[in-house]
Amino acid sequence: MAEIRLTNTRTRKLEDFEPIDPSDVRLYLCGPTVYDRAHLGNARPVVVFDVLVRLLRHVYGADHVTYVRNFTDVDDKINATAASRKAAGAAGTLEDLIRERTEETIGWYHADMDALGAARPDHEPRATAYIGQMIAMCEDLIAKGHAYAAEGHVLFSVESYKDYGRLSGRSVEDMIAGARVEVAPYKRNPMDFVLWKPSSDELPGWDSPWGRGRPGWHIECSAMSYELLGPSFDIHGGGNDLMFPHHENEIAQSCCAHPGSGFANVWLHNEMLQVEGRKMSKSLGNFFTVRDLLDQGIPGEVIRMVFLGTHYRKPMDWTEAKREEAEKTLRKWRALTDGAAPGTVSPAVLSALSDDLNTAGAIAELHKLAAAGDAAGLKASAAMIGLLEDAMGGWAETAEVDLSAYADALAAIRAQAMETKDFAAVDAMKKDLVAAGIEVRMSKAGIELKLMPVESINSVLAKSLNRNAADDADEAEFWSDLAERMKANQQASQENQPEMLEALAEKYLK
RNA sequence: GGCGAGUUGGCGGAGUGGUGACGCAGCGGAUUGCAAAUCCGUGUACAGGAGUUCGAUUCUCCUACUCGCCUCCA
């Protein structure tokens, strides 16, 4: 059995993974706050954990892994959206509108993550379904002297937990010196954080011993992981921006509520995602959602492949060049594995994955399998990281169109050209075919025509807009030119390819 | 200011105390009427400095640079 090694943020070391209970390996991933579409960065930990879960199931057995990922459906941004909808005259109570908003966002999230080939977790708890448990946890923490109520709030006392700051390598003193904490008169220590806060009448709230209120941000993960996985479990993770304060606070809450449990053994944090070398942000204009990419016609499998090309602990740069390369590779591999039955998983792939989820190394091994022509091994091994699976391959199939009439016509012209040595007519037809998105292969044996995948005008337009003109004027011009040509039907796009074929038939098949 | 990550050939990106992945691009060749596709071949890369060592890209320290987090954004 492959020994799995993972980098544990808690110890800052690469450690052999030893499950608490090999018959039930338990992991928890901090899921989304469901206020809007998931952006591309949200998808990274999901894909990382999906690979991890596949590996764990492979090693410990499909039924011996429990994967939990929450939906945080209590949040001020959700409230704000619901409030603005109500103000705009939407029907229903505020609670209804909040529910509507979270339901619709969860639906989007599922659709988007499904498209990336990420299997749904075993449990997807919603924070609102665990309010009672959160209140109980707050009461327990107060009883144990780790929290206190003040002005309708319940606050966690960081001074009551000596290891506070250990995960993120900070000390309470340093953080106070940084002075980036909310100062509030009811806090005993400026670093104390909110477990429960009061709600006004316009905000969603639940009755509690401290009045009507709602939970703070961190308590839901502590409450839900306890309910579903117990006081201690194997792996807990998320993006490294969650390390502080979110995970730090979770640890403090959970460890104080359940002394001696240790909470999560291994903390797994993925690095952030960048776009074309820059942080993805709305102000830079390079902010986009998973759905934006899917709508441009970029297959989820391609997005996944790009993600896996970079180790999860390194910043990942999303670039157009990577997208193209990933798509090309997947097409090649899909052609190779088409119709093949999965064989056995390559030990080299397994060994790469076991080494701190070295997906880039695993992909390198897949390249070797492909080069060796081992379709069965490639298919089985790729499935370990969620690639080349039948369910995700639709995008790589090209439409079945009978091109034999075109091939015959070209063959006739070519046969004549062979005699006259004047190939102008052949070249002209070939050029037209290529422009229409048909690949032309001529050999002594004959002529082979193949419909090539072509981009949609929307995708090309998106690319020309995505380019920062100052940085990449040539690129931007290239894509806008291409879009123009597509519109003018001088170049095939998904939308106009049928028309172009029609025109070619008119020209050459009469 | 505090904390952390990183710096590998044209590009992307693994890995290793001593025979320098892998992919893409490039170049050369085969093939082709020319191409495309395919196949074969091809690369004096490890930010800088000091140290440890028989030997370091790989370990330690320092410097430079890049990036992220500390703002309920994964």
Walk me through the structure.
With 510 residues, the protein is an alpha/beta fold. It folds into three domains: 5-149 and 157-172 and 216-270, Rossmann fold, CATH 3.40.50; 301-396, no CATH class; 404-508, no CATH class. It is 45% helix and 14% strand. It is built from 18 helices and 15 strands. The protein has helices at 40-60, 76-87, 94-115, 131-143, 172-178, 219-229, 243-257, 290-295, 300-308, 320-337, 347-354, 359-371, 375-383, 404-420, 424-435, 457-466, 473-487, 497-508, and strands at residues 5-8, 13-16, 25-29, 65-69, 147-150, 153-156, 193-198, 213-215, 233-239, 264-270, 273-275, 278-279, 316-318, 438-443, 446-451. A four-stranded parallel β-sheet has the order 4-3-9-10, sandwiched between helices. Strands 5-6-7-8 form a four-stranded antiparallel β-sheet. The chain is elongated, with a radius of gyration of 28 Å. The structure holds one RNA strand of 74 nucleotides.
Structural class: alpha/beta
Q: Helix share of residues?
A: 40-55%
End-to-end CA span: 65 Å
- Please give the order of strands in the largest beta sheet: 4-3-9-10
- Determine the number of helices (DSSP H or I, runs of at least 4 residues): 18
Q: What is the overall pLDDT average?
A: 88
CATH class of the largest domain: Alpha Beta
Number of domains: 3
Number of strands: 15
- The CATH topology of the largest domain is given as Rossmann fold
Overall geometry: elongated
For the biggest sheet, the summary is: 4 strands, parallel
For the record, the CATH architecture of the largest domain stands as 3-Layer(aba) Sandwich
Rg estimate, integer Å: 28 Å
CATH H-level superfamily of the largest domain: HUPs
Sheet-strand content, in percent, reads 5-15%
